[in-house]
Design a protein that fits this description.
alpha+beta; three-stranded antiparallel β-sheet; 3 strands; elongated
Length: 97
């Protein structure tokens, strides 16, 4: 009996990922008594590119919980989003998740 050598060999490469180098940040918007629901919804749709439903849900969380994470990513990507939200008179910060 002859055995044919296997031609399809799967090679697994182990890759080490340093978790400390992966930073996940969030833009967190805080509740206030100044801005209307519609204004916050419109802001999240325009600045964060949320759907209407997503913006409405975030706005309700902001209202009832006092804050909501509205966008995740790297600090470099989130900084202009946070700045645009603050320029519209809302309170937002970039926090490490």
């Amino acid at each position: 009996m002859k055995y044919a050598p296997e031609t399809d060999v799967e090679v697994l490469i182990e890759e080490e990922i340093v978790v400390d180098e992966i930073k996940l940040y969030s833009v967190v918007v805080f509740n206030d008594e100044v801005n209307t629901f519609d204004f916050v919804i419109d802001t999240l749709m325009e600045v964060c590119e949320h759907s209407k439903e997503q913006a409405e849900q975030c706005t309700l969380i902001i209202h009832f919980k006092g804050k909501c994470s509205v966008k995740n990513g790297d600090v470099e990507d989130l900084t202009p989003i946070r700045n645009a939200i603050c320029q519209r008179g809302m309170s937002a910060e970039i926090l490490l998740r």
